[in-house]
From TrEMBL:
Residues 7-200 form the Leucine-rich repeat and WD repeat-containing protein 1 LRR domain. It comes from Rissa tridactyla. Its main location: nucleus. This is Leucine-rich repeat and WD repeat-containing protein 1. It comes from the Eukaryota. PROSITE patterns: LRR, WD_REPEATS_1, WD_REPEATS_2, WD_REPEATS_REGION.
Length: 676
């Protein structure tokens, strides 16, 4: 029988308590405790515990699932600890002591400095400066050496088309070779160096090359496990931690029927004869569901079907060979965000390559840019940088290849709804906030020590909260469109103007339900289908508008805050729901529009037979609503025998070649479909 009981915990609380969940300080020293005495089920009820004293016991390790989400101070002096890696489950830890554990060495000190991003005091000493060196400089040097070793000795051994057996063989040889030959720092830290080299090497194989390492998600350690769900809104959280590069556990929910989707175009919608005979219906896109992932769970809980997923964007390809997939013509890695985490997913294998987590955040938007950074010996190299933002109004900047969040920008005092980078100026980032402002930032380029300087270049004043933003493809340095809670607006963003804070230049009006025109409506979906055609929703339920930028907006017109009628080219038939924030996206290379609905379905529109006519100066509006080319129905997903119901599709995004379709839901499921 365990020595630790509820009564003991209440008695040893400081001060004594009547409820486990109210305990903030707990003294369990000098109780002759062994590892088996630390019952995870009992400790999981100590949700607000911040200080824990386990000194003078007989502990040889920590259980991996000792859920203490708010632990800040831990004393493990005078035990028999042999390993410290399980301490990574306490990401908010600031003070740690484990003196007089005879099996622990200097290598273990370095491991905890790397694993615990918030750690300030170790065995009574301030390790802030050394820890930053370990996390930044040391990691950068080792990553450079590991990459060089792969490029020189192993990259050419991998054939263009490889089998699983070949991958397994080369992985084994590479891991053995790299741990033997990559040397850095004093010999006293050789164990730590081998530990980090193996970690970096595995991540290089998994992320940079897109190889499935065959890891079993069931066996991997969780950052937090089975954290009790709060009855508060999903925007309420506690604690704060940044973690990059963890191959965190995730759940794959399998559909009860995994058949290819051959649903007929626009199934479930009645059509007139004219609509039924349109040419676009000849194409029936066969799409196969590949993966259903539950990788954004709060505290990694497998019971979390509440976290909302909001944004996803495919990683751009780099020119360097190590990043380029030899099979795919475009990137198959996608960044997704929702709840407290951002994930990088390989769409083909369903592998969660990396997970970045901030316990007090709810991420709403992610965006990629490619920066040319100076590396060692003054050489320059292109790297992909991911920006992530959300409820806290802070933009996190992540150097993905280095597994490092190198900085943040406190952009707004209210939540950030969406972010996007300029396609022509790689350091220019737009942030749209609940403070009714859109800000333009120059995020700068970090130096070899990740020092950078961000500056605000412009503030665009909106009349209501901006929800979606889009730069005009033909003049991305001059005009920006925003879909807002109160309408659709355009701003002049040209930087040669002296005015730093600017009002909108135009507001667009659309047909209303009574046949008139209105500017007052929520626009929660906005994207360009090509250089001229804009797709937006939802001025009224059941309809998505396609309209012309060039014919609606006269760039030579003078005056500010003009009211302009949008020149409508067509309407797309869509769900009659009045639910908001089910956004749309486009695949310009294939002339496709995607939009999810309130029933878990994805509406797909192939508009290639219309775009030519729309580009004509005399192009007329389509008389009838254009039906979807196809509707992908949500499959029957079951978790522990229970079917998931009431699935909202918050976002749908395809890669540039429309090979993969990533679907984000309201039930913490990321669905990945593949066009076959």
């Amino acid at each position: 029988m365990s020595k630790i009981t509820t009564e003991l915990l209440l008695e040893r609380a400081v001060p004594r308590s009547t409820r486990l969940r109210k305990i903030e300080t707990l003294n369990l020293s000098k109780l002759q405790l062994k590892t088996g005495d630390l019952d995870p089920r009992l400790f999981s009820r100590l949700r607000h515990l911040q200080k824990l004293d386990l000194s003078d016991n007989l502990l040889d390790k920590f259980p991996n699932s000792l859920t203490l989400p708010d632990l800040r101070v831990l004393n493990c002096n005078n035990n028999k600890l042999e390993d410290v890696t399980a301490l990574k489950q306490f990401p908010l830890l600031e003070e740690l002591t484990y003196e007089n554990n005879v099996y622990l060495t200097l290598n273990d000190d370095y491991k905890v400095m790397f694993l615990l991003q918030n750690l300030r005091l170790l065995n009574g000493k301030d390790i802030t400066k050394l820890a930053n060196h370990v996390r930044r400089v040391n990691s950068r040097k080792l990553t450079s050496k590991v990459t060089a070793h792969w490029e020189k000795f192993f990259r050419d051994q991998l054939p263009e088309k490889y089998t699983a057996e070949q991958v397994k063989s080369i992985k084994k040889k590479f891991l053995k070779s790299v741990q033997t030959n990559v040397v850095y720092g004093p010999s006293s830290l050789s164990e730590f160096t081998r530990w980090r080299v193996k970690m970096i090497a595995e991540e290089l194989l998994a992320c940079s090359l897109g190889l499935d390492l065959g890891t079993d998600p069931e066996s991997e350690e969780m950052m937090d496990e089975n954290e009790e769900e709060s009855t508060e809104s999903p925007r309420e959280a506690a604690g704060d931690v940044d973690q990059v590069g963890d191959f965190s556990s995730y759940v794959t929910v399998t559909p009860s029927k995994r058949k290819r989707n051959h649903s007929k175009p626009g199934s479930g919608n009645k059509r007139s004869k004219t609509q039924a005979n349109t040419k676009e219906e000849a194409e029936d896109v066969s799409a196969e569901p590949l993966h259903f992932l539950q990788c954004h769970s709060k505290g990694n809980s497998r019971e979390d079907f509440k976290t909302q997923l909001w944004s996803c964007v495919f990683e751009p390809l780099l020119d360097c060979g190590a990043r380029k997939d030899p099979i795919m013509s475009s990137s198959r890695t996608v960044a997704t965000c929702g709840g407290e985490s951002v994930c990088l997913i390989d769409c083909e294998t369903g592998t969660v390559l990396k997970k970045y987590k901030v316990a007090t955040e709810e991420f709403f938007s992610v965006a990629w840019t490619t920066l040319t950074m100076v590396i060692s010996d003054s050489r320059k190299k292109s790297h992909n940088i991911l920006a992530a933002a959300g409820r806290r109004g802070i933009v996190k900047l992540i150097h993905v290849a280095a597994d490092f969040c190198y900085g943040e920008i406190k952009a707004h005092k209210k939540p950030i709804a969406t972010v996007c980078f300029s396609p022509t100026r790689e350091t220019h980032l737009f942030t749209a906030s609940y403070d009714k402002r859109i800000a333009l930032w120059d995020i700068g380029i970090p130096d070899c020590d990740y020092n950078f300087k961000a500056s605000q270049l412009l503030v665009l004043e909106a009349l209501s909260i901006p929800l979606r933003i889009a730069l005009v493809p033909t003049c991305p340095d001059q005009y920006l469109l925003a879909g807002c809670e109160g309408g659709c607006f355009a701003w002049n963003i040209k930087l040669d103007k002296e005015q730093k804070s600017r009002p909108f230049e135009a507001i667009f009006q659309f047909p209303d339900e009574d046949g008139g025109m209105t500017t007052s409506h929520r626009v929660d979906g906005l994207a360009f289908l090509n250089d001229d055609v804009i797709v937006s929703k939802s001025s009224k339920p059941g309809c998505i508008y396609l309209w012309s930028w060039s014919r609606s907006f006269d760039t030579k017109g003078k005056g500010c805050q003009r009211t302009i009628s949008a020149v409508i080219l067509a309407e797309l038939e869509w769900s009659p729901t009045d639910l908001s924030y089910l956004t749309l996206s486009t695949c310009p290379a294939k002339d496709y529009v995607f939009c999810g609905d309130e029933k878990g379905s994805v509406w797909m529109y192939n508009l290639s037979n219309y775009t030519t006519a729309w580009t004509s100066a005399k192009g007329k509006r389509s008389d009838r609503r254009i039906p979807p080319t196809q509707i992908l129905k949500w499959p029957e997903l079951r978790d522990n025998g229970e079917q998931l119901t009431e699935v909202l599709i918050n976002n749908v995004v395809s890669d540039p070649t429309f090979t993969y379709l990533v679907v984000l839901t309201s039930v913490n499921i990321t669905a990945i479909w593949k066009k076959s």
